[in-house]
């Protein structure tokens, strides 16, 4: 690696408000007339800025990781597999040794493991990672089984049991299914099992999928209320530019990942088997940071030292505030399926962070979606205001537009007298 020697630390500048509405409390009054909503809405910016003030030092972050009661560790395909499309058992065993040691010391460990596709294409006779979705899904189906078999035997060396959890974005954005995932993960941890999580690649449809396990790991960290997130990859740390570029400097500590995003050059995967590259790892660190979770990013061979709090890789400070975990899922988990266009008053009320989106303030519906699907809420100029879960199927909505709750009740029935998007189901963007 041509990375240079100088270690760099970003100083915390004034924290910018970046549209991280996922951190904003939108516990709001029930839907009200627009004027009342606007009058009661308090600007969230001041409290948001205060809550985003990152104040932890690198030592604090390292200590938090070492002392984490619950830790989520994500490992990438390139750290577990060979370019030929087969598992690299030796590297997998080394990772498991580090995780089992942490578990043996009392940590509740969740492993988010990539590698299903990368471990499956070789046994299927392909020379390189397949490009078409159907073959990727077939490879994942084969590779996931191989991966779990190897994890089971490797953890068994330490008397540790593992459990497989395959998640689709679709399974988890709805409240009931989200709680189901949360409950299963919690119970596995209570039973002393190491849950091994991956996206359900064989079944996830392309339109609605995480696509990368970096973001998934941050969301899982949120769902299990982890105390730390460790991202393991094939590079020892974050650099100011892709490490192959001359002059790239290693970054030891990032006090404010939001500000840092503008200061580093990152690219997608370079390994041929990874999917998101450094772009999605920074996104994961950002999601973790706004969830109040410290993150360390380093290479898989550094898993043990990272978990012990040694100064390896890059440490990312969290912000103080821990947002609602379910809101994060709404904000990050899935691509919106359609759009509800809000009029000026409704857009203002929603932006205020305290209002549901009522049919009375919606002028247009676009796209085809079902109740519970994620949708954009746009203003009339086309700017995104929020993401939310629709309360109705798209085909039901046109007859509701512009009508008050009383009119909806009278003309369409009680079941229609509800917000199109309830305030608990939306996040500002
Ligand atoms: N600024 C950067 N600092 C460090 N690595 C970077 C940067 N920009 C791009 N990368 C690349 O990101 C790669 C890791 O991403 P990826 O291949 O998706 O790994 P994984 O399979 O572990 O998810 C590294 O090998 C590195 O080449
Ligand atoms: N879910 C996919 C991996 C997706 C992914 O994020 O891969 P990577 O960039 O290697 O962490 C698989 O198991 O093949």
From TrEMBL:
Pfam families: AA_kinase, PUA
Domain of life: Bacteria
Low complexity compositional bias, start-end: 24-42
Compartment(s): Cytoplasm
Keywords assigned: Amino-acid biosynthesis, ATP-binding, Cytoplasm, Kinase, Nucleotide-binding, Proline biosynthesis, Transferase
Residue sites binding substrate per the record: 114, 201, 213
Annotated ranges, domain PUA: 338-421
Compositionally biased residues, Acidic residues: 1-11
Residue segments, region Disordered: 1-42
Start-end of Basic and acidic residues biased regions: 13-23
Family to which this protein belongs: Belongs to the glutamate 5-kinase family.
Functional note: Catalyzes the transfer of a phosphate group to glutamate to form L-glutamate 5-phosphate.
Database matches in HAMAP family: ProB
Protein name, entry field: Glutamate 5-kinase
Source organism: Bifidobacterium jacchi
